[in-house]
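Example for tutorial group B:
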């Protein structure tokens, strides 16, 4: 999880998918050509085509006034203000359209474009740059992204450990055996496990 979905307008994710599609072996064309070939030139996920305006919310979604009581327009304006400030501070232009965002991808590195004798070739690096590598994010957002990344890294291991403890180690004797502890007397087991 790179965290870009918490920073970019909502078209960032489908744009990444489209770039990934354009990276397929044998495809040599522009993103506009890819959009025409795959979606007939119009895709709702990016608000139509590459000249569609970027937004942070879905225009036809029912607004959640409990989560954002200020309303769609005020929330959208606040997100744009924050996004614009972050980009301007880092010296990047503020994109207005999906096409502008695709050009910013090339500057940042999540996408690469190369003109070859056969046509335009697209590629994506094996490891995407993190938004906090390129932008000075709000400390609250940085902390949230760090927490999400930690959970994504440790979650599978923690889930396996919990599954092992719940499914297989249903007694103190089994827990002691699994942790190489021999004492199962009530006080000593917890002291030994705590040291382990």
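The residue assignment follows.
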């Amino acid at each position: 999880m790179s965290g870009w979905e918490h920073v970019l307008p909502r078209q960032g994710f489908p744009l990444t998918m489209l770039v990934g599609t354009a990276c397929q072996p044998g495809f040599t064309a522009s993103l506009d050509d890819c959009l025409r070939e795959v979606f007939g030139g119009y895709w709702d996920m990016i608000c139509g085509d590459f000249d569609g305006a970027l937004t942070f919310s879905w225009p036809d979604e029912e607004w959640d006034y409990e989560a954002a009581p200020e309303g769609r327009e005020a929330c959208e304006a606040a997100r744009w203000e924050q996004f614009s400030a972050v980009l301007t501070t880092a010296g990047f232009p503020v994109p207005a359209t999906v096409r502008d965002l695709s050009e910013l991808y090339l500057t940042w590195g999540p996408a690469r474009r190369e003109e070859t004798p056969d046509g335009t070739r697209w590629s994506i690096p094996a490891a995407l740059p993190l938004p906090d590598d390129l932008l000075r994010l709000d400390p609250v957002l940085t902390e949230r992204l760090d927490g999400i990344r930690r959970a994504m890294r440790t979650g599978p291991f923690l889930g396996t450990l919990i599954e092992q403890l719940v499914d297989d180690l249903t007694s103190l004797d089994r827990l002691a055996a699994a942790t190489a502890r021999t004492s199962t007397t009530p006080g000593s087991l917890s002291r030994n496990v705590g040291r382990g």
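The CA atoms of residues 61 and 175 lie 50 Å apart. Compare this with the pattern of hydrophobic and polar residues in the output above.
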